[in-house]
């Protein structure tokens, strides 16, 4: 018995590779985030994942050029986040509320809040050895003093901020206040 090779019609020889290519392109298009367009005159663009809150979380956003000059003086609580991270999205309203309610500490304790988008500022986050999101770190005069490991609730984060602001206030007693951070 003789076995004949399978004959594939010519149009199918073209269709299968085209379908494979179309499937690959579709997968890539869904997996690749589209960067936000830069507005005229704006130097920092914040990328946002679809569904990441209707607006960005307000506050100071640091980048590789502003991180060291900003954090070199005063106490800074910095959130390193990814706009694509579900935990970051869930934590964002708490961060916003605590930073707004603690804004008065900038004058009384030189205690400030900032955020770093690790998608847009990957090199900075790598330099800071950020391994997961969100990561919240405390800096005194440009030196990392530790990572916040507490609960991501408003009450726990507020208690942490009050304690660290009080600690820093004791450190700076008698020192002149540093100038406010430069606008990004």
Characterise the protein shown here.
The chain is of the alpha/beta class. It has a domain at 60-172: Glutaredoxin. Helix content is 39%, strand content 15%. The protein contains 6 helices and 5 strands; from the N terminus they run αβαβααβαββα. The chain has helices at residues 10-31, 67-71, 86-101, 105-108, 122-127, 154-172, and strands at 60-61, 75-81, 111-117, 135-140, 143-147. The protein has a 5-stranded mixed beta sheet. The chain is elongated and about 100 Å long. Mean pLDDT is 79; it is low at 27-56.
Protein traits:
184 residues; alpha/beta; Glutaredoxin; 6 helices; 39% helix; elongated
Topology (elements, then pairings):
Elements: H1 10-31, E1 60-61, H2 67-71, E2 75-81, H3 86-101, H4 105-108, E3 111-117, H5 122-127, E4 135-140, E5 143-147, H6 154-172
Parallel strand pairs: 1-3, 2-3
Antiparallel strand pairs: 2-4, 4-5
Give a short overview:
GO terms for molecular function: protein disulfide isomerase activity. This protein has helices at 10-31, 67-71, 86-101, 105-108, 122-127, 154-172; strands spanning 60-61, 75-81, 111-117, 135-140, 143-147.
